[in-house]
Design a protein that fits this description.
Helix content is 25%, strand content 17%. It is of the alpha+beta class and 170 residues long.
Length: 170
């Protein structure tokens, strides 16, 4: 909360972060998810992520405009490992979303915001042991939308420094 106080921002401390954040996302909000240590690499892995509802067809354009990136930019999915095979045609679970996989017809209809024009998606899976709070968020979202997945993209924008902390670097 120190960073929020320094920035003189109004905030509310959440009692159940996963449940309340899942509700915000299900209500159509875009959430900046910032937790723990800095992650390194070209993809958002749940420590520095922008999250949204993958079931809304318009969310792809909303997120792309919000983060000022190209429409062709690949927004990824993040799902719980235990449920990932229901939507994603994968031979193995993918911890980091480096490759694209084909989605089934049902998945394309259910999660249009993470579906690319060629019918693929860039998946990431999460388990409770490696990222408990992120996993809980996905499970709470599933209780609301009946989809064990979120739209996930990175705070890191090409040409900008990697997001290390909530403070700005002006």
């Amino acid at each position: 909360m120190h960073s929020l106080d320094q920035a003189k921002l109004n905030y509310t401390e959440l009692v159940n972060v996963a449940k309340q954040t899942a509700k915000l996302i299900a209500d159509g909000n875009i959430v900046g998810w910032f937790q723990g240590r800095m992650e390194f690499g070209p993809r958002a892995l749940g420590a520095r992520s922008i999250l949204a509802d993958p079931t809304r067809a318009d969310m792809k354009d909303i997120v792309n405009k919000w983060v000022n990136i190209e429409k062709i930019f690949a927004l990824c999915s993040v799902s719980s490992k235990r449920k990932s095979f229901e939507y994603l045609k994968m031979s193995q679970r993918v911890r980091i979303c480096f490759s694209s996989i084909k989605l089934g017809k049902k998945s394309k209809e259910v999660v249009p915001a993470i579906t690319h024009t060629d019918g693929t998606a860039r998946p990431q899976t999460v388990d409770k042991a490696t990222n408990g709070l992120y996993y809980d968020l996905i499970c709470e979202f599933e209780k609301i939308r009946h989809v064990p997945m979120l739209l996930n993209t990175s705070f890191n924008i090409m040409g900008e420094p990697i997001v290390e902390s909530p403070e700005t670097s002006d």
